Amino acid sequence: MKNEVYFEVKNQDGLARYGELRVGNLQVETPLIFLGYRLGDQPEVWKKIKIEALMPNVYDLLQNNGRVTEVLKKGVHKYLGFSNLIMMDSGGWYFQKKGGINVDVEYVLELEEKARPDIGVVLDFPLDPSKPEETHKRIDYTARNTKYMLEKSKIPIMPTIHGYSKEEIDYSAKKLRLDKPTMLALGSQAALLYPFRVNKIEKIVDTILYVRRKFPNAFLHVFGLGSPRLVPLLFYLGVDSVDAKTWLWKAVRHMIYHNGQIVCIKNDSYSWTPYFDGRDFECNCPVCSKYGFEGLKGERNWRNRAIHNAWKYQQEMKEIRKSIRDGWMEEYIGDRMENKTYRSLFEKIKNKLQKNLYEW
Predict the structure, then answer these.
(1) What is the mean pLDDT of residues 331-354?
(2) Is 175:169 a contact under the CB 8 Å cutoff?
(3) Among 36, 47, 262, 334, which residue's CB has the most CB atoms within a 10 Å radius?
(4) Is 91 left (phi over 0), alpha (psi -120 to 50) or beta?
(5) What span, in angstroms and rounded, lies between the C-alpha atoms of 31 and 175?
(6) How would residue 340 be classed by pLDDT, with cut points 50, 70 and 90?
(7) How far, in Å, are 20, 99, 210 from residue 167 at the CA level?
(8) CA 139 to chain centre
């Protein structure tokens, strides 16, 4: 029997929402961050600290036949030794990145069902902003897979909407035929950020706000935008969850999450990331409580950095939820936005929202 999914907004501060997501017997507070995790990677951070939600990927299963056998036999919860919320991504973005989606939707659904995550994701066809002529075709393929997976699945499935404009979102929504969905994901936005331009973020903001207004009651997840500087802003716009892999792959590159941003603790002249020498560093995560700042430095301590980063993400979720419940989300973001570019962007968005200048 398929688990039922329920979502309830309990407090709201502007567009920002504090709520509760229930999937079967599991219950989590929102806003929420899913830590992206490649099956088999180290560290298994949930065995060191409390983690609320993980997001492994079907694509990883197909890269290791031995692993797929064990995951499908045990189920992903038992395989990982993780009892909290798991959403399994379908791998659409990875398949496409590697040269095309050449796997059957039937097989992807079979893998998701046998792995038994709490939520599966539709095998979608993310958009490529450099190939606008393919947009409708990709949306059509996503709609075809959505129809199949929603009708056939034995587990809850997250549909994904794609688009970079009001017209494209409307087209995608029409093709998906979603009637007041309980949960919905927005995809393809991360592709706009490379190379980075502020006007690209403004475009993403416009799209998120339009989707939020079009589906006001849905639990809204946004894929691929888990940057520490973006996360509070997305929740301010009414997003309910995001996912991030930066906790791990930034750690491998000598980077840590500190004061709302990513900093590099290795003085590397080739890095674009701001250097941080540890001056006035304070952190009471399990790693820093035991080893201090020195425990984060060096090639061998990347696992410590990963645990630190994951812990900081979890703590920020608690702070953001409290700021929404207490009605000071704007002040919270304002205090975190030390970067002039992001602060200017936030002020611009805030003023437009206050003056109702966004076109829906």
Answers:
(1) 83
(2) no
(3) 36
(4) left
(5) 28
(6) confident
(7) 31, 28, 10
(8) 21
Say how far apart CA 268 and CA 63 lie, in whole Å.
Answer: 33
Query: What pTM was estimated for this model as a whole?
Result: 0.94
For residues 180 and 339, give the distance between their C-alpha atoms in angstroms, rounded to a whole number: 38
Largest CA distance in the chain: 57
- Edge-to-edge order in the sheet of strand 241-244: 157-158, 119-121, 85-88, 53-55, 32-36, 241-244, 219-222, 183-187, 160-162
CA 196 vs. chain centroid, Å, equals 19
Residue pair 214/180 in contact by the 8 Å Cβ criterion: no
Q: Which comes out higher in pLDDT, residue 194 or 21?
A: 21
Q: Rounded to whole angstroms, how far apart are CA atoms 197 and 163?
A: 18
**Sequential DSSP letters for 259-318:** TTEEEESS--TT--SPB---TT----SHHHHHH-GGGG-SGGGHHHHHHHHHHHHHHHHH
Written as six digits, the tokens of 255 are 């980077």
Does residue 228 sit in helix, strand or coil? Answer: coil
Per-residue pLDDT of 209-244, as tens digits, reads 999 999 999 999 999 999 888 999 999 999 999 999
Instruction: Map tokens 């929404």 to a residue.
Output: 324
Please check whether residue 124 is in contact with residue 160, taking contact to mean a CB–CB distance below 8 angstroms.
yes
Question: Do the Cβ atoms of 336 and 345 come closer than 8 Å?
Answer: no
Q: Which pLDDT tens digit goes with each residue over 62-111?
A: 776 677 888 999 999 999 999 999 999 987 766 666 555 567 899 999 99
Identify the residue with better confidence: 207 or 350.
207
What tokens appear for 200 in the block?
């690209």
pLDDT of residue 195: 66
Residues 6+ apart with CB under 8 A from 29: 18, 19, 20, 52, 317, 321
